[in-house]
Design goal:
The protein is an all-alpha fold. It is built from 9 helices and no strands. Helix 2 packs across helix 3.
């Protein structure tokens, strides 16, 4: 989709139309007023998805999902849950995940089972990713991804190579 204006310009226009100060918006979104100002002036091109969602809620944007898609915060197939009611969010997530699980193959289901087994570790990873997202950076997740690739290579790829080599010798 072609962006008619940058997100910061859209934000400034929307905030001004509602008569909301930068300070009030920042407080509501749990960021500094200078952060909002930097977004509006284009110094921060794209705040984190979490901040963008808080902005949508603070400005009571009715078509938040389409705005987030327009500015590249979410993809066309992503699910956006606007309701702040915990139980509603939980039920929507259960429905979404149930549909996704029905379409998974056996290997994907095994991965989900592995997640369940190590859920404490994954919850910590989720917190790391959230904080990286708040800082508008993916560096911790990139490092974690590289480490997982290393472990995969070490324990899976090398093991398979040894098995094939043993079969070739036999």
């Amino acid at each position: 989709m072609i962006k008619l204006m940058e997100f910061g310009v859209w934000l400034r226009n929307s905030r001004s139309k509602l008569g909301i100060s930068t300070r009030l918006l920042a407080s509501t979104c749990e960021v500094s007023p200078s952060y909002i100002s930097q977004v509006e002036r284009g110094h921060i091109q794209k705040p984190s998805l979490e901040v963008a969602r808080k902005i949508m809620a603070a400005l009571a944007i009715e078509n938040a999902e389409s705005i987030l898609k327009q500015y590249g915060f979410i993809e066309a197939g992503d699910t956006f849950i606007e309701n702040n009611d915990y139980e509603t969010k939980r039920n929507q997530l259960i429905e979404h995940l149930s549909r996704e699980i029905q379409n998974m193959d056996f290997e994907q289901l095994e991965a989900i089972n592995l997640f369940y087994k190590y859920q404490d570790m994954f919850m910590k990873i989720s917190k790391v990713e959230k904080h990286a997202s708040d800082l508008n950076t993916k560096i911790p997740m990139r490092a974690l991804s590289e480490y997982i690739d290393f472990l995969h290579h070490k324990y899976v790829v090398n093991r398979l190579k040894r098995i094939f080599e043993m079969n070739d010798e036999a």
